Amino acid sequence: MKTDICIVGGGPAGAVLALQLARLDVDVTLLESAQSYERSFRGESMQPDTVGIFHELGIAETLLAHGCVETYRMEISERRRLLLAIDYSDAPYRHKFVMDIPQPVLLEALQARIADHANARVLRGAACTGLLERDGRVSGVSYRGHGKSGEIESRVVIGADGRYSRVREMSKLPYTKLPMNRDVLWFKVPVPEGWSNHTAHIMLKGARHLILLPTYPDLFRAGVNIAKNSFAGQKRQGIDAFYTLVDGIDPEFGSHVRRHVANWRDIHLLDIFTINMPSWSRDGLLLIGDAAHTVTPLLGQGVNLAIQDSMELAPMLANALCQDRLGSVLFAEFQAKRQPDIEFVMKVQMRQERLLCAESSWAQFVRRTNYAALHRLRFVQKRISDRIAYKRQRAMLHFDECTNNSGMALECGFTQTSTVEKQCGVNRS
Ligand SMILES: Cc1cc2nc3c(=O)[nH]c(=O)nc-3n(C[C@H](O)[C@H](O)[C@H](O)COP(=O)(O)OP(=O)(O)OC[C@H]3O[C@@H](n4cnc5c(N)ncnc54)[C@H](O)[C@@H]3O)c2cc1C
Fold first, then answer.
1. Is 48 close to ligand 1, i.e. is its CB under 6 Å away?
2. Is 42 helix (H, G, I), strand (E, B) or coil?
3. What is the number of alpha carbons within 13 Å of residue 323 lying toward its C-beta?
């Protein structure tokens, strides 16, 4: 089989890229190893900017029709004493809430839109098993699925196969894996009576913390930190060891957990690490999303960075295809555009990692003081959230102000022929 762009991995990064390329009339093939997307513990928290992107992609209505949970506020507390509250609803933008939507629903909605385009195809249940090379350049992939093997020749291979990327390994590109000091145990419980399912919480006690994220339909996705690589030992001690862990942070929430989490099968381990790569590409191959830059789950950024990669990359690839300019210069340009945002997120996350896991009473005092100061300094809160939650919408507002445009320019999606499309000879009017 031959295609212009072959994408390995149909997670948020790969599926959004495939859809955007399909809309730009690019011939694209998406390979996804899983037959079904039913996986309950994945990134489900979509930042306000990503909600705007769903409108651009034309899938917002499908997601809203399915049902989602909107989070308007985040609180950090210690022994139930509020240290920091951040209100998303204060922001001067159109989309000002974090949307929780099950990842399978998001991915199926994207695939349904991809299926509208004859120039795009999705191979489900097909796992990439190797990279094809010609004259030292990646020229396609080999894959296996449904008991058969095959090869796809392409002008570019995009590795979007997630945090344990096989394409990254096969590319031999150098990378650094930086394990954090903690792992996280994830589980789901109903929102307790009297609690709001529109507020996310981080509850602190010493070096332990409990993260509670409002989750569709009326649940909290909860994460509790444990020391790195201690999961097997915890499990051997029996489920009571887990209950004691949660009780130690908040006894009242602990008794709620006892009622709703029956055994270890309800609990999922997330190994926390980051991946840093000096270069995301080699000739004929580019990595995006978690494959290029795995971040920690703090502040719910992974899905959002992955989707932003694809929104940025699609027009660049379409343009370069028209101009026969696909290659390392383009890939380096893409990385240079995305790297500052990713580095900023990683920097904020590393700082939070240190604060949340503070061991000594001095470090915990510093943490308390930090959060209390941030609680009062609204302009600092705004500076951070403008960068990690509202960057896109802020840029659109700025564009509107400069052009006296009454609506948000990018929300027009592709109803008007874009510059890239004009260059490629596509006319949608
Ligand atoms: C437990 C957990 C909780 C998380 N919580 C959040 C959160 O609240 N908010 C947030 O923003 N992020 C969160 N994340 C991170 C988020 O899920 C990822 O950052 C995001 O999904 C990355 O998207 P991606 O498309 O790059 O990779 P992935 O979502 O990992 O998608 C990769 C895809 O590639 C496929 N694949 C793998 N190997 C192959 C192969 N050889 N051939 C073909 N296909 C292959 C996989 O099946 C998968 O569908 C969480 C992650 C986990 C594990």
1. no
2. coil
3. 14
Burial (CB < 10 A; 0-12, 13-18, 19+), residue 258, is: middle
What are the boundaries of each domain within the chain? 2-41+102-177+275-424, 181-270
Q: What is the position in ligand 1's atom list of the atom closest to the CA of 107?
A: 49
Pairing of strands 69-71, 199-205: unpaired
Q: Are strands 2-8 and 148-159 parallel, antiparallel or unpaired?
A: parallel
C-alpha closest to that of 378 among 97, 95, 91: 91
Q: How far is 218 from 144, CA to CA, in rounded Å? A: 39
Q: Does 32 sit in the ligand 1 pocket, CB within 6 Å?
A: yes
ipTM above 0.90, yes or no: yes
Residues paired with 153 in a beta bridge: 2, 140
Helices (H), 267-360: 302-322, 328-356
* pLDDT by residue, tens only, the chain of 429 residues: 999 999 999 999 999 999 999 999 999 999 999 998 887 667 899 999 999 999 999 999 999 999 999 999 999 999 999 999 999 877 888 899 999 999 999 999 999 999 999 999 999 999 999 999 999 999 999 999 988 999 999 999 999 999 999 999 999 999 999 999 899 999 999 999 999 999 999 999 999 999 999 999 999 999 999 999 999 999 999 999 999 999 999 999 999 999 999 999 999 999 999 999 999 999 999 999 999 999 998 888 999 999 999 999 999 999 999 999 998 999 999 999 999 999 999 999 999 999 998 999 999 999 999 999 999 998 998 888 888 888 888 887 766 666 655 444 444 333 344 444 444 554 443
How remote is the CA of residue 163 from the centroid of ligand 1, in Å?
A: 7
CB 301 near ligand 1, within 6 Å: yes
Tell the burial category of 128 from Cβ atoms under 10 Å away from its Cβ (0-12, 13-18, 19+): buried
Characterize the bridge pairing of strands 148-159 and 285-287. parallel
Structure tokens at 296: 């920690």
Write the CATH number of the domain with boundaries 2-41+102-177+275-424: 3.50.50.60
> Which two three-digit tokens encode residue 279?
């270069």
